[in-house]
Design goal:
The complex is a heterodimer. Chain A is an alpha/beta fold. Chain A has 2 domains: about 180 residues, D-Maltodextrin-Binding Protein, domain 2 (3-Layer(aba) Sandwich); about 190 residues, Periplasmic binding protein-like II (D-Maltodextrin-Binding Protein, domain 2). Chain A has 19 helices and 11 strands. In chain A, strands 2-1-3-11-6 form a 5-stranded mixed sheet. Chain A starts with a helix and ends with a helix. Chain B is mostly helical. Classes of the chains: A alpha/beta, B mainly alpha. Chains A and B meet through α1, α3 and α18 of A and α1 of B.
Chain lengths: ~425, ~290
């Protein structure tokens, strides 16, 4: 009986092996198209902002449109785009690099990891000065490591406070809150009017590092202090989380915020069960899909007044230097930033442009306006710091404890994580 | 010629040996090796780390809690699964109308993807709209939807029992079928003899059924121990190990670590691997698996 078991298991494993090896070769096949007549093929890898392959807003469809136009204008350059979803892109790109098959162009969420190993072209080698000059200065600065630019901002996003106007009028609240005190008072009124989650507070795995940062900004805090040192347990941040703990204890937020994902809370807001929530342009389609019409968007309340900054999130595009295609890459980048491709991204995915020109073009959009206004003065995660990845992981897992237990202790533990990861 | 004959067995066991070497032994060696390396987030090996990954792992504030919780998790799920399955196997071994339908129905939780089952339970426990909370509301167990009382997965003390429940739910079918097969091998004349000797129902079960069921029981429990210890989808889908790490087992912790430090994550895997072996050895000792039935 034992032998049979082993035999069966062996057969099963063999099947798995065969199947997985098929899967492996499928991905790498056909990435070396013959480029005759002196034509150059650029290999590009991009993240998918849409709902995946086959959907009308898929990355494949979007990039095909861009590339067709580019190839019509530049017949000697072919661009071969491989679109990969966000969950897998880091791992697959790492595999490509390890196998010596780095792409020419990569569009994803981070660039700094590649700089250490000297894999990237400098920005001025692959982008014309008139294009790089049009990039929002503050954004472009984040593309620099030790003063040299390697990452080119691709798209961005910002945050603001969404509030449900129907629930507000039902609770008799005239105006959306501007300060923490007003926010607490409004939440109390919403609760009295029977709203189960007056303030949607997702401090769970999905995006706790973003929600936390928005609150820290409201009290002049942040992950780092002005001198660039980690300051997660600064007095301001402890005060911030003590205030939040007060909201949680009074039952004015999502219950057990440390276990709630942003997606769930946004869906609850869309379903009309949440009074206020921090969101971004990308949450608009979610609320629309849930059928919520009557909501307003205002700057996020801070301790003494609305935030004059907000969390900015940026994705990047970069050029790898292994294949020596700088001139062709430059043509493609210039084409991308000067054409209407950037605007198409904003229209399709509600992501925000990163150039002054792009922002001007969108300024007529009523719903996007609060975000566009906030962009030039946005604050960012300290993602140039190599320790940020592990800090962010720990924050996602444990920061919810700061509104349940002792804020100072939980933030102190995170500070220790940051300091030890930095050394 | 004779020498060739001596080599013949190798031709038969050779493929199996190669397979085991490639899919079992090699990954184990790689795992142990990785735990001594410093590896970047992009998978680039930065060099030898010595015991640094282990030092970091043991210094994690939640490490001890997580290990203790993992053992409790395994013991709770396996004991409950086996006890419930023993009763179910007994029931399904009786003749009753629609037995075939009932037996088929039992397969459902086993056939369904564990991840799907876990996600469905998470939805049913949703504090705003979950059906389990709707029922609790109707029964007057909670005052309103959406509050902390309705959010059972948000709190370790109420989330843990639910996680155990779902793990038992998906483990029971396999265990029941393994035990049913065991029951089918017990010859009827043993029971007849017991009846002749005047043994009661309880005595018969205790002195005949259970001892003769031991081989099936041992295999079923052993497979469950390893499965449950390495169980990932249920906890990940339902709580992510949150709040904090308070519902995380060592397997979940290993996965979380992988996002920031692959070396430390490998160290956790090695500890995990050792734990499974230790638990298995303890279990085999306790169950005296290789002793013949008297």
């Amino acid at each position: 009986m034992n032998m049979k078991l082993v035999g069966g298991a062996a057969l099963g494993l063999a099947t798995v092996l065969v199947l997985s090896s098929c899967g492996g070769s499928g991905g790498s096949g056909g990435d070396t198209p013959a480029a005759g007549d002196g034509a150059v093929t650029l290999k590009m890898v991009a993240a998918d902002y849409g709902d995946g392959p086959g959907k009308p807003n898929s990355g494949e469809t979007f990039w095909k449109g861009v590339v067709d136009e580019f190839q019509a204008a530049n017949p000697t350059i072919k661009v071969d785009v491989q679109v990969i979803n966000w969950n897998d892109i880091d791992k697959q790109v790492a595999t490509m690099i390890q196998n010596g098959q780095a792409p020419d162009i990569l569009q994803t969420g981070d660039y700094s990891g590649f700089v250490q190993d000297g894999l990237l072209h400098k920005v001025d080698e692959v982008l014309s000065p008139n294009v790089s000059g049009d990039l929002l200065q503050k954004f472009a600065d984040f593309g620099k490591v030790d003063g040299t630019a390697y990452g080119i901002p691709f798209v961005s996003s910002a945050r603001a406070l969404f509030y449900n106007k129907d629930l507000f009028s039902k609770a008799g609240i005239a105006e959306p809150p501007k300060t923490w005190d007003e926010l607490k008072a409004a939440a109390q009124k919403l609760k009295d009017a029977g709203v189960t989650q007056p303030f949607g507070l997702p401090l769970g795995q999905e995006e706790a590092q973003g929600e936390s940062f928005l609150w820290m900004l409201g009290n002049g805090g942040g992950y780092k202090d002005a001198s660039g040192k980690w300051a997660i347990n600064s007095p301001q941040n402890v005060e911030t989380f003590t205030y939040l703990k007060g909201l949680v204890d009074a039952g004015l937020t999502t219950p057990n915020p440390g276990t709630k994902d942003r997606k769930t809370v946004w869906e609850d807001f869309g379903a009309g069960k949440v009074g206020m929530v921090n969101g971004g342009p990308m949450s608009i389609p979610i609320f629309d899909a849930a059928g919520l019409k009557n909501y307003g968007i205002v700057p996020i309340p801070g301790k003494t007044g609305p935030l004059d900054t907000t969390l900015g999130v940026m994705d990047w595009i970069m050029a790898f230097n292994q294949n020596g295609h700088a001139a062709e890459i430059k043509k493609f980048f210039d084409f991308f930033y000067t054409g209407d491709a950037a605007q198409k991204i904003s229209d399709t995915y509600k992501l925000l442009p990163v150039t002054n020109g792009g922002i001007e073009k969108l300024s007529g959009d009523e719903k996007l306006k609060p975000f566009l206004d906030a962009l030039p003065n946005a604050s960012f995660y300290p993602f140039q710091d190599p320790a940020w990845t592990s800090v962010s992981q720990s924050v996602k897992q444990t920061v919810g404890g700061a509104v349940e237990d002792d804020p100072a202790a939980v933030l102190g533990e995170l500070q220790k994580t940051a300091e030890s990861a930095a050394s | 010629m004779r020498r060739l004959r001596a080599l013949e067995p190798l031709a038969w066991v050779g493929p199996a040996i190669v397979l085991i070497a490639v899919v079992v032994i090699w990954p184990v060696i790689e795992m142990v090796r990785s735990s001594f390396l410093e590896i970047s987030r992009f998978g680039v090996v930065r060099g030898w780390a010595g015991f640094a990954n282990y030092d970091e792992l043991f210094a994690e504030k939640d490490f001890a809690d997580i290990m203790v919780r993992s053992v409790i998790w395994v013991v709770a799920v396996v004991v409950l699964t086996v006890v419930i399955s023993l009763a179910l196997a007994q029931l399904f071994n009786q003749r009753f109308p629609l037995r075939k339908v009932a037996r088929w129905a039992l397969i459902a939780p086993w056939a369904a993807s564990v991840l799907m089952t876990a996600i469905i339970f998470k939805w049913m426990l949703d504090p705003e709209v979950g059906v389990i909370n709707q029922i609790r509301l109707k029964l007057g167990l909670i005052d309103a939807m959406g509050g902390a009382a309705a959010d059972q997965l948000g709190n370790a003390s109420t989330a843990m029992p639910w996680l155990v429940f779902v793990a038992v739910f998906v483990s029971v079918p396999f265990t029941t079928y393994a035990l049913l097969a065991g029951l089918a091998t017990i010859p009827g004349d043993v029971y007849e003899a017991a009846r002749m000797d005047g043994a009661g129902r309880f005595r018969t079960y205790w002195s005949i059924t259970l001892p003769l069921l031991r081989p099936a029981l041992t295999v079923a429990a052993l497979i469950n121990i390893m499965n449950v210890f390495n169980s990932f989808p249920i906890i990940w889908a339902m709580t992510h190990g949150q709040p904090g790490y308070s519902t995380a087992t060592s397997t979940i912790f290993m996965y979380i670590l992988k996002g920031s430090d692959i070396g430390e994550s490998a160290a956790m895997s090695v500890i995990n691997f050792g734990m499974v072996i230790v638990l298995t050895v303890i279990f085999l000792r306790v169950s005296r698996w290789n002793k013949e039935v008297a």
